[in-house]
Design goal:
single chain; 127 residues; alpha+beta; Beta Polymerase, domain 2; six-stranded mixed beta sheet; 4 helices; 6 strands; 27% strand; globular; NT_sf; translation regulation
Amino acid sequence: MKQRKNKEVSSQDLCQLVTKGMIEKKGQEIAILDLRKVKNAVADYFIICSGTSDTQIDAIADSIEHEVHKAIQENPWHKEGKTNREWILIDYVDVVVHVFKKDRRKYYDLEELWGDAELTLIEESVA
């Protein structure tokens, strides 16, 4: 079973770092899906945000990785989507981050797909 290197940092704390990275680069419609009570969930949390261009979603993904590494010296377990820059996935094992181009987010609609999860929307003005 895969595990995060830094187990001293909770998945909630990791969510805060990810969210900070999203806000830093003006990520839009930030949503945290708490999957801890969802049967057979693949992670504790999904964190989702949108960007308006491929350049912005690339910058958001880089900002997330920077914030997490700066605070807890942790790198993602896995990441994909950096090449086509329409949906970048950053997997920190118990926290999985999805950075979408707006139209791709609507198409995949992860919030609806994981409708049993507790949903928290983050105000972009939070720093």
